[in-house]
Design goal:
Elements: H1 2-16, E1 42-47, E2 58-60, E3 63-69, H2 85-97, H3 106-111, E4 114-120, H4 131-136, E5 140-143, E6 150-155, E7 167-168, E8 172-174, E9 180-183, E10 191-192, E11 196-198, E12 201-205, E13 210-213, H5 217-248
C-alpha cells in the first residue's frame, strides 16, 4: 500500500517540488559530472539571496551558502542538520575570507573536501561580499562559463571528502584498501569501521576498502511513516480536487 501511494504521488511531488523553493542550480551543475574530479568532492554554492540555492541554506556576512557533494544535489541534502563543529569552522573561515584577508583559501577549503566554489547572481543583483576576494585570491582557478551570471572556481589544492580514489557508493564510500582514512565530515560514531574522532572530522579503518554510515532503523521507520502520511495526503488531495472539478464541469 505504501509503495502504491508513493508511486501515485510522484507526479504531484514533481510538480509541486514538495513545497521547496525554485532551484536553478540543478542543471547548472551538470558540467561537474564531465570534469575530472578528485573522487568524492564538494561544491560550495554562494549567492547574494537564499532563494536561488537548493534547499536550506546557511548565512554569512551579506551572503548565503550551501555545501553539497558533486556532481549533483542529492535529495537528502536539501535539508541541513543542526550545525556541528565543522559547520562552525567553515562559517568562521568564510567570514574571514569575505574580508579579503586570505589570498590562498584553497588549502583550508580542501580540508572540508571543497573542490569547487560556484557563485551565482541575477543580472540586476548586486555583488556579494565574497565576489572581490574570489577575484583576488591566487589558488582557486577560474573556469570560463558561457553563463555570465555563473562564476566557477576550482581548487588547485587536491580536495576530496575521503580520498582521491574513493567514491560514494550509496551507504558510504569505497575505494583502495588503506590502513586509516580521513572522512571530511562532522565527527559521528555512527560511521564504521574503526571510528576515531579527529578534530571536527574523523578517521576510519580503510582495510576493507569500504566505510559506511550505520542505519538507525528506528529513525528510518519514523521517516517512512512520515512519507507515507505525506503521500496519502497528496493522493487524497488529488482525488478530492478531481471530484470537485468533475462536479464543476
Amino acid at each position: 500500500v505504501a509503495v502504491l501511494l508513493m508511486v501515485a504521488a510522484v507526479p504531484s511531488f514533481l510538480g509541486g517540488r514538495l513545497g521547496l523553493p525554485s532551484d536553478d542550480w540543478g542543471d547548472r551543475l551538470e558540467f561537474l559530472a564531465n570534469m575530472d574530479a578528485d573522487g568524492a568532492s564538494r561544491v560550495l554554492l554562494v549567492s547574494k539571496e537564499p532563494d536561488g540555492l537548493p534547499g536550506e541554506v546557511r548565512s554569512g556576512p551579506g551572503f548565503f551558502y550551501r555545501v553539497v557533494e558533486t556532481p549533483r544535489v542529492n535529495f537528502d541534502e536539501l535539508w541541513l542538520p543542526n550545525p556541528a563543529e565543522g559547520d562552525a569552522q567553515l562559517g568562521d573561515f568564510l567570514e574571514v575570507m569575505a574580508t579579503g584577508a586570505i589570498l590562498r583559501p584553497g588549502a583550508e577549503l580542501a580540508d572540508f573536501g571543497i573542490e569547487w566554489v560556484v557563485t551565482s547572481r541575477g543580472a540586476e543583483e548586486a555583488e556579494h561580499p565574497l565576489s572581490v576576494p574570489l577575484q583576488t585570491q591566487v589558488d582557486l582557478v577560474r573556469i570560463p562559463m558561457e553563463d555570465e551570471t555563473l562564476q566557477v572556481f576550482r581548487n588547485s589544492t587536491s580536495a576530496s571528502v575521503v580520498a582521491s580514489d574513493w567514491y560514494f557508493d550509496g551507504t558510504g564510500y569505497s575505494g583502495t584498501e588503506v590502513e586509516r582514512i580521513r572522512l571530511a565530515s562532522n565527527s559521528d560514531p555512527s560511521w564504521s569501521p574503526g571510528f576515531t574522532e579527529e578534530g571536527w572530522a574523523m578517521t576510519l579503518s580503510g582495510v576493507e576498502g569500504q566505510i559506511e554510515y550505520g542505519i538507525d532503523w528506528g529513525t528510518r521507520s519514523v521517516v517512512w511513516l512520515g512519507w507515507l502520511i505525506i503521500a496519502a495526503g497528496v493522493v487524497l488531495r488529488g482525488v478530492f480536487r478531481d471530484q470537485v472539478m468533475g462536479r464543476a464541469e
